[in-house]
Design a protein that fits this description.
Layout: H1 9-21, H2 27-36, H3 38-42
Length: 45
C-alpha cells in the first residue's frame, strides 16, 4: 500500500466523485475504482 504518499486534494475529489457516480458504495470501492482507472486519470490529472 502507498501509505504516506501525498496527493492533490482536487485529484482525490475528482476520483472520488467519478467512483461514486459509477456506483462505489464505500472507501474500498473508491480505492479499487481509482486503481483500476489509474492510467485514464493520469491523462488529465
Amino acid at each position: 500500500m502507498l501509505q504516506g504518499k501525498r496527493h492533490h486534494l482536487p485529484d482525490l475529489i475528482v476520483i472520488g466523485l467519478c467512483a461514486v457516480i459509477c456506483g462505489a458504495d464505500g472507501w474500498q470501492d473508491i480505492v479499487l475504482f481509482g486503481r483500476s482507472k489509474e492510467t485514464w486519470f493520469k491523462t488529465f490529472l
